[in-house]
Each structure stands twice: as structure tokens, then as C-alpha cells.
Amino acid sequence: MPKSKKLVYVPGDVLDEIMKVSRKRGESISKFIEDALKQAVRVESFGYSMEKAAEILEVIRAQKVLGGVFVPQEVLNYMVEKAYEVEREGLHTKWFENGKLYGKYLKERFENPVQALRSFLEATRWDLGEVEATVEGGVVKLRCVSTVLSVEGTELLAKFIEGAVDGLGYQIQRVDCVRGIIVVEFKA
Question: Which residues of 109-135 are buried (b: 16+ CB within 10 A; e: fewer)?
């Protein structure tokens, strides 16, 4: 029994982009749209909007471009604990420098680099339960909360964020850091 079909109106400019992509992939426009819609439904079933899924993919791409890796939390904690005992300042410097690199990249790559930083932290730091960025009176407040971060892990993540903020071209106004909670306030 053949599948039923329904007519859906698509804006011309969107259809033009779809035509380019489908030609590049060597498939029909109908096949491309059908596949895209199936994947959109799949993404929604995971509890994500298509916008959020695209944002996560962009962040993962940035992570790959910048040489980031995913490391099991237990392994990272072990390495940080051992290295922190003998090389605390060196670790702080490395995390700050890498944060700065990420900040510069986010500034060049994304229209809203502060939200990109928030998304980056949210997507790549599974140990963070909350990541929030708010703006009040020209001051941006970035808040990260975790129930599993160690003191050392919190301090290093704070250094990374400070570096990222510096790389974005902002001036840090305040950093508050206690085990599992980081608050960084900054402005242009």
C-alpha cells in the first residue's frame, strides 16, 4: 500500500537552500526533505528542539576544531588531583590560556559569543547541572553549578572561563568560586 502524501508550503528562500544541499548530496529534494523531517522528529523525541540540536552540533564542531576531547569524569578528576599537588599554578595557566583560545574562536565564529560560551559549557561539561548567562545593565553574569565538581576542578574550570571571557574581549568584574559553583561577572 503506497504511503499517503500531503502538500506542505515551504518559503522560496528555504527551498532554494534545500535545492543546493540536495543537489550537492545527489538526491531529490523530496528525499532530502523527508529525511530531514524524520530526523527533526527524532531530535524532538530526545527532548531537544532543532535549534538546540544545531547549537549542540556547532559547539561539538568547535570542540573538535580546537582540539578538545571528551574524557570520563573519573579519569579527569584523578589526573587533576595528582597534577594539582605538584603543578597548581601551571595548571591554572594552561586552563586560562586554553580558555582564551576558545574565547577568541567563539568571538570570531558566533554572532553571540557569550551565548555560544554558555552553550559550549552546557554541551561539553556534563558535570555541570546548570549553566546560565544573564545580562543586567551591561554586565554579563555567567553562573555554573555542579554537584560533582571537586575544589580543584571548580578552580580550573573558573580559570578556563576567565580565559574565555578575556578571549571574547570582555573585562572581568568579579569571580566567585567555591566547590561546585562559579560566578563570573564581566562587561565589554
Answer: ebeebbebbbbbbbbbbebbeebebee
CA gap 28, 22 in Å, rounded: 6
Residue 16 to residue 79: CA distance in whole angstroms:
50
Torsion of CA 91, 141, 129, 88, to 10 degrees: 10
Cα 35 from Cα 119, distance rounded (Å): 26
- Whole-model pTM: value is 0.82
Cα 123 from Cα 43, distance rounded (Å): 15
> What pLDDT digit, counting tens, does each position of 48-81 carry?
999 989 988 998 899 899 998 888 888 988 999 9
Percent of the chain with pLDDT over 70: 99
